[in-house]
Amino acid sequence: MHDSFPTTARIAGLGCYLPERVLSNHDLERMVDTSDEWITTRTGIKERHVVADDEGLVELVERAGHDAMADAGVEPGDVDLFILATATVEQPIPASSAIVQPRLGVTNAACFDLSAACSGFVYALNVARQFIATGEAKTVLVVGAECLTRYTNWTDRATCVLFGDGAGAVVLEPAEAGDGILQIDWETDGSYADLISMPGGGCRVPPHSREAIDQGLPFIQMRGNETFKVAVRALADISQRVLDSAGVTVDDIDLFIPHQANIRIINAVGSRLGLNGDKVFTNVDRVGNTSAASIPLAMCDAIEQGRMKRGDLVLLTAFGGGLTCGSALVRY
Ligand code: UT7
After folding, report:
1. pLDDT score of 266 more than 90
2. What is the mean pLDDT of residues 72-88?
3. Can you tell me which atom of ligand 1 is nearest the CA of 159?
4. Interval 172-229: pLDDT, tens
5. What's the rounded Cα separation, in Å, for the pair 185 and 42?
6. Is the entire prediction scored with pTM above 0.85?
7. Under CATH, which architecture does the 7-179 domain have?
8. What is the mean pLDDT of residues 6-11?
9. For residue 185, what are the contacts with CB-CB under 8 A and spacing of at least 6?
């Protein structure tokens, strides 16, 4: 009976949304002790998008999700599973996926949030693929979305220059071997959990506690330099492992889309893998680090620029807080 199940999942549609408001490096120069020159040379970021005062996570998810369903030609009622990858929830209870469900119209879908920081989109692809491969789900909406600027300490120049808001979504449908997600892998190393964290705002240090407020704990903190080194190694290792498992080499890849955290990380990983620069996609200059939204936002840009088209072999690799990493080899 299992022989009749599809073996994998394919991306049937893609949608993205960036908030209208743009914050440039020059704007940041007026907010903290930084410079366009420092941010550009150390990170590659020139600008990032920031939610409007009356926007939250759900507005971003709604826009990207609707676009992905339209692109796939599916009705919201056809979606039977909706996974929202995010580290920046609308509110702690209930799940943000449940809050946005009526706005998306995916009323027949079971909904849950997935927390794997910047690797959340790739983790969600893996979960969705499993449900489709077992026949438990047929049409899955996966959204990676972040409202990071609401969790940013705007007096900390080491982090506030890095993050941006946005959302990217895909609709996944059953596929036969050779199409869609060909290989996927993920891993977690919790011994590095304190490298990227928000130590206040949970049950250990509740958001309303004096300690949380006095010590500014409900904000993202990062030990950037240490994270940088682990990120390069982890991104390169898991990418190579996925290529090896699939029996392909970098020469077979049409495009590598890594998590957009820092241009220096992206370039270092590209050269470790032996990839030509023109096969490595980057849009970090325009969007900054958008965590779980990063890879689908980059996919949208790659398609718009004519760098990615149907039938291409694309490697998607992410790394983030946890520490988590994940990589998917996809026939788009
Ligand atoms: O998405 C999840 C994964 N995240 C990542 O992969 C991020 C990984 N880390 C990074 O991208 C980089 O480590 C950063 C961009 C965060 C920082 O770059 P760096 O080259 O590692 O700089 P650093 O932290 O070693 O700091 C160098 C100097 C310090 O000054 P001193 O001590 O040398 O005098 C910092 O205080 O740069 C200073 N600095 C800044 N100066 C101007 C830190 N932030 C800023 C700033 N503007 N915004």
Report:
1. yes
2. 98
3. 16
4. 999 998 999 999 999 999 999 999 999 988 888 888 888 888 887 789 999 999 999 9
5. 29
6. yes
7. 3-Layer(aba) Sandwich (3.40)
8. 90
9. 238, 241, 242, 245, 326, 327
Query: How many Å lie between the centroid of ligand 1 and the Cα of residue 257?
Result: 23
Decide the pairing of beta strands 165-175 and 21-24: unpaired
Q: Whose CA is nearest to atom 45 of ligand 1?
A: 158
End-to-end CA distance of the chain: 28
Q: CATH number of the domain at 182-331, please?
A: 3.40.47.10
Does pLDDT of 1 surpass 60?
A: no
pLDDT at 5: 67
Which residues surround ligand 1 with Cβ inside 6 Å? Answer: 34, 38-39, 42-43, 118, 157-158, 161, 196, 224-225, 227-228, 231, 261-262, 265, 289, 319-320
CB distance 46 to 24 below 8 Å: yes
Interval 12-31: pLDDT, tens: 999 999 999 999 999 999 99
| Residue to mutate (ligand 1; options 121, 196, 225; most atoms within 8 A of CB) | 225
pLDDT digits (tens, 9 = 90+) for 127-176: 999 999 999 999 999 999 999 999 999 999 999 999 999 999 999 999 99
Is the model's pLDDT at 41 over the cut of 70? Answer: yes
User: From the CA of 42, how far away is ligand 1's center (Å)?
Assistant: 7
Kindly report the protein residue whose alpha carbon is nearest to atom 4 of ligand 1: 261
59-63-68-73 Cα dihedral, nearest 10 degrees = 120
What are the extents of the domains in the chain?
7-179, 182-331
